[in-house]
Amino acid sequence: MSAMLRTVNRIVLALVGLVLLVLGGSVLAVGLGASPPSWWIHDGRHDVLLSAADRTRWRDEGWFWPAVIAALAVCLLLALWWLSAQLRRRRLAEVLVATGDGEGASLRGRAMENVLAREAETLDGVDRAQAILTGRRGTPRARVQLVLEPHAAPADTLHRLSDETLAHARDSAGLDGLPTTVRLRGLKHRAERVS
User: Residue 13 is part of which domain span?
Assistant: First the structure.
């Protein structure tokens, strides 16, 4: 989901930036005296973007104002959705580690994610691993994605991940449990020729 959100962000920001650059640059160029093409939205340095006739053309139509309000409402809802997606924290910033003294300590979430991923990559048959922590700092949840090599046995890899890697993370952080969602993918490879 986060990769998709990053892609959507880049596309939306690139499109908005391109539109603003083209419109702003053209207005600036025409304002400085450049002559625009005949099809452009304004003709010269003293021309306005919307004439009085353009501003009042659809005023008497019954559908105009509801359509304008609906379009603006859709734009506002999309902007609010995008803003809330930016502000929502998907990853856990820190994990509360039980130290036995009643106080506890904080462990950076990224550090624990890196350790989980690196240890998972040492398992036989795992080419790459990625780990993301979500949830609350006292009760984290993990999402692990493993890219398996062609010879890997998924059941064995999953068993070792649970018994070794996740158990080490749970014990190291003093957690009662670490609910984990695991995604397995196969490594793309060329077919081998058998002779």
Answer: 1-49
